[in-house]
Sequence to fold (150 residues):
Amino acid sequence: DVGEIYSRLLDHRPVIQGEIRYFVKEFEEKRGLRELRVLENLKNTIFETNEHVLPKCEQAMHDNLDEAIKRLQAANSKIHRLQEREREERKLQADKLMAREEKRVAHREELMKEQQKKQAEVDEEHRKAVERLKEQYSEMEKELAKYVSF
Fold:
C-alpha cells in the first residue's frame, strides 16, 4: 500500500510523460501544418516563377539583347566609316603636305638658279667695270706720264 501511495503522491512520471507526449504531438502538428503551408507557398511561388515570370524575363532579355546588338552593330559601322574618313583625310593632308613640300623645293631651286644667274651677271658687270677702270687708270697714267716728262 505504501508503494501505491508513494506512486500516487510522489511519482509524477506517468502524468508528466503524458503531458510531454501531448505537448510534442500538438507542437509537431502545428509546426507540421505551418511548414506544410510554407512549403506549399514556396511550391506555388516556384511554379508561378517557372511558368510566367521566367519566360517573360527570357523574352524581354532576348528582345533587349537583339536591340542592343543592332545598336552596337550600327555604332560599330559608324565608327568604321568615321575611321575610314579620318584615314582618307590624313592621306589627303599628307598628299597636300608632300605637294607643298615639292613645290617649296622647286621654288627654292628656281630661286637658287635665279640667284646664281644674277650673281654671274653682277660678277660679269664687276669684271667689266674693273677692266674699264684699269683701262681708264692706264690711260690716265699714260697721260700723266706725258706731263711728268716736262
